[in-house]
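Support request, priority: normal
Reporter: lab tech (M.K.)
Component: structure prediction queue

Hi team, I submitted a job for Methylglyoxal synthase from Pinibacter soli yesterday, and the status page still shows it as pending. I've pasted the exact input below so you can check whether something in the sequence is tripping the parser. The sequence length should be 151 residues. Please let me know if I need to resubmit or if it's stuck on your end.
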Amino acid sequence: MPTRTLGARKRIALVAHDNKKQELIEWALHNKTTLAKHRLYGTGTTGTMIENALDQSVNKFLSGPLGGDQQIGAAIAEGSLDMLIFFWDPMEAQPHDPDIKALLRLASVWNIPIATTRSTADFLMASHLMNEDYDCIIVDFSSYIKRVIGH
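Reply from support: The job had stalled in the queue. We restarted it manually and it finished. Here are the results:
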């Protein structure tokens, strides 16, 4: 199976819905030392809040509802992001729910680590794989592509 190497210095996207932003900031502060070893990315407001809290540069996309979720999804598909930490609010309907579903789908399609809860994010940060190269298996979709193009 084909693989893609996630480098020792991971490219981590940090995303949070409004009701989860404070929780993500608290989590990021708790993991500040580990996060400092990696490159951080975020959607609009969340990225700015994380950058200010950690005093660490965060590459920012648009706000989620304005296309930031889709930009992160595209970066995942292009292989320029290695991990997604997305504290989403399952109890609140979002105007951009289809974008969120597409983002989570792309992260799964490209087999990158995803955390949607604080405990899962903690487990990812505690993994020895966070600070070393990791060969991520990429599913071979060539037969799917041939089937779709053939129709």
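The chain has one domain: 3-150. The longest strand covers residues 11-16. Let us know if anything else looks off. Ticket resolved.
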